[in-house]
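Let us work through a complete example step by step.
Step 1: write down the sequence.
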Amino acid sequence: MPTGNIERRKLLKLIGAGATSVALAGCQGTQQTETSDGSSGSDSTATEQTSDGGSGGSGGNDFHFIAGQVFGTLDPAEQVDYTQGLAAQNLYDELITVDAETLQPTAHIAESWDTEDEGQTWVFTLRDDVTFSDGTPLTADDVAYSLTRMLELQRGYSSFWLDYLDPSNISVRDEQTVAFEFNQAYGPALATFVQFYIVNSAVVQENEQDGDYGNAYLQSNSAGSGAYVLDDWEQGNSIEATAYEDYWKGWSEDSFDTFRSTVITEESTIKTTMQQGEGDMTDQYMGTQAYAEMDSYSNVRVPEVPQLQLFHFPLNCRKAPTDDINVRKAIAYAFDYDSAVNDIIGGGGVAAGPVPRQMAGHNGDLVPMEQDLDKAKEFLDRADYSVEEINEIGLEHVVVAGTELQRQMGLLNQAGLNELGIDLEINPLQWARLTDRATSAESTAHMTNIFHTAKMPSPDSHTYLMYHPSSFGSYISQSWYSTDEIAATLEEARQTSDLQSRLEKYEEAQALIVEGMPSVYIANPPYRIGINENVEGWQYRGVMSFDWDVHSMTRSGEGRAE
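Step 2: predict the structure and record it as tokens.
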């Protein structure tokens, strides 16, 4: 097994990050911090907006990231999963970033901020040395346009702000100052802005088509201020980008000149690519044995980090037969959690509800599930569907194609349900197809393998984004489950400025959610990736995709270690 390289003090920081960041978001008064070393960004188009740069470091220093799932979009206003986040993190700049040491929100494009009206209005002061890759300065107009664009498109993480901020209440006070006047105090506001990426408003508006806010244009062009500029994107296969020479954070001699990501879904091919020194980094979604094997290579290291992540099967509560709570409970009690955590994932712990157990705001009264076939049969006897009817309807379990861990989880679920006489169809899909199907309850599978990593340092991302009706239609919310009481409790949590009171609301919501059994909550896995030994500067950053900021890393030695 890989050797853990993050000591207990890092874990304690991880546990406390959510609480501290939420506290910052609820405080009134000026908040200033030094700019973090971790960021990203980009801009410019691959055609008309080509950069004059491309020599961030010494010539020919290429960073190759191996992704196990395809990129569904390059528009930062739509990004919601880890490959989309990887693109956004390296082609655009976020307003606020996450500090790699404290895992708290810290300055980035916004160098300071203040609140007014008892936390209802947030005022951000921007850096004055940031340019887009066409050389034009990034100003408050670009920030205002970018957030307005997200609110109008109503995609990606727009649900962070849709119910609380009207575009008419976004104001530019001067070239470097922008204000967001929420319709009420909004507790997790600061934490949400780590997922707000800024686009070049002039370029995007010039390329709008039929009121699409430049969405079609940004599928094949980048328009940001970040470290890399898009050169090419072959949907489903690869992305390539070149360093923006005048990136505001500067470059070192050993920085990466180019960044590319190749989609490889076969674990054997990924391992071979890393062993032969042809890749710099993998994702964290392979099987345990794959990381153990890579850790044995002389040219690859595998860090192991506790992380803010949930692995679960959301159960589609709007589709027969999983619309029956007793069927859902039978499925949950039939699953072998110990084998999933110890044999397939190889570490971490059994999940207790939707919020990771390491995250501030987790409800510690919730008990992790255990396999109990007798209970499963009892709930099945209470269900409105007989076993014969369930098999006639058919149960579909979607897994991400080509990933051994995903396949094994499907087989483990299948084995448990077979003990009840229930047949299960395991359907491997490419990630882009999976996310397409998640846009409606009718097309969403009965259950799906989902790794849900923190999207911001707050339990809001594991509650509101999963179980509030305004968030439905994303891969994150595939259970399609909520109640009036759950929705109201989550809304109250967002409206609560006091940290402790807000966390208590999130805990209350978790208890209500688990009562409905909308998911099989399986594990809080450890974080593992493969890294070439000659890559330096990598740091775990807590929020999904932020640790894949290529600008923060450098190459030691001559090329990749082989």
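Step 3: interpret the result. Residues 93-218 form a domain with the Dipeptide-binding Protein; domain 1 fold (CATH 3.90.76.10).
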